[in-house]
Input
Amino acid sequence: MNFWRVRWRWVACVSPLLLSSCAVVGPDYVKPELSLPDEWTASIDKDNQASVTGAQRWWRNFNDPVLNELILLSRKANPNIRIARARIAESWYQRSVLSAAWYPTSDFNARSNSGLGSFSSSGIDWNFNSSEDQLAQIDVGWEIDLFGKVKRQVESATADYQAQVEGLRDATVFINSEVALHYIAYRTLGKRVEVAREGTANFQKIANLISSRLEEGLTSELELHEARARLKSSKAEIPRLEEEQIVVGNRLAALLAIAPGNIQKMLRKHNDIPTPPRSVTTGAPADLLRSRPDVRRAERQIAAQSARVGVATAELYPELSISGAITYQAFSQFNTVETLRRTLGFGPALRWKIFRCCADRARIKENESRLEQAIVLYENTVIAAVTEVENSMTRIHFSGKRMKILEDASMEHRKTAELMLDAYDVGEVDLRRLLNTQQDYIITRDESLATQGRHAAHTVRLFKALGGGELPHPAVVSGRSNKAKTD
Output
């Protein structure tokens, strides 16, 4: 009777606590709301927009097969993307470790000792198997999540996992854009090398003409030296551009995790600067909250930190656990059993931190401060995203205008240079005007190609600023199959 009376007292004490287990302490996460403008301040040519926002393969809009091949290769081989995938797996298994606290645990311990004899001041008296000690025990335990500490831990780990998924997408957006930017730079430098060689050929033609005129006594040696000086200056520009092109190609190879020699073979297949789409539909500023992985990642980090406040709050409340044990122990000496235990044990245990000199409350404040930091970081990420889109749109708008003007200017300079050569040949203009006209054409043509490359690069940066087409993931909270989908 005394046994059952004690047990019922335990049940009476524990039942109210069990009933309160549905109360989870700490703040429930609420997604922060930000006020964003309805339209962009900057504008792009709205007459012929191509609706490509959110396209998961935006680089195909450049219609460059080599660029398509390079980006798809980088998504598989780039070290940063591979590390991001590994971090997702790490975060998932960390969540699995924490969620295991919802379930009971069990341990098995066993030992067996055999006596070898005894010893005294006179020495050792060997006597094998003089005694034997055996123990086998199974322990079972279960900590009841009374105030949601485990739930908050799993909630935080889930948000951390989702943040890592967004981290992978953010890394993918960054690597995609870096590959495209380096590829555009490589192609632009290649075209500029061609212009430098064209200029060298033109100056060589002028030098040959002056040399012939000098032999006929129609000009002075001074003009020949001046023409050769322009020729050598033009030649000196070629190795500088070639060096820069090789360096950019090596950087591109590093993004693909391949040897520089292999990238050169791939880049020989094509030699034009990629042509961006005529225009890009950007949507509304509020769409960035859904389209940009870094914004979604910052929001998930807020959710994770909010749950950590709940974990710290739960430390103020009691912890209830239930444990049990099955024990067998036997000790015999000189073939006589002296101790024999066969026991079954089961019962609750209550633990409550009564006094910690406000350490637990300070820990709550610490996590609340981190939560405030996460919110500010989220707001700053959104503002930076809006600014990045605005800047990209502005640069596309003005670089497009400048590119058209420079193309027309280079055509005019080319016609002028051709006519000036004929005029010099008949003595209508002097050498200085001829060389300056040719130099103006080369400079304008070079700047036209550089602007064309910058215009394409600004379009890549706009795609990146819009989220790079890496769409948000569905709510991934359980199951390894879901984790595999994120890869």
The domain at 23-101+149-316+370-486 is CATH 1.20.1600.10 (Outer membrane efflux proteins (OEP)). DSSP finds eleven helices and six strands in the chain. Strands lie at 105-114, 117-120, 123-126, 131-144, 319-333, 336-351.
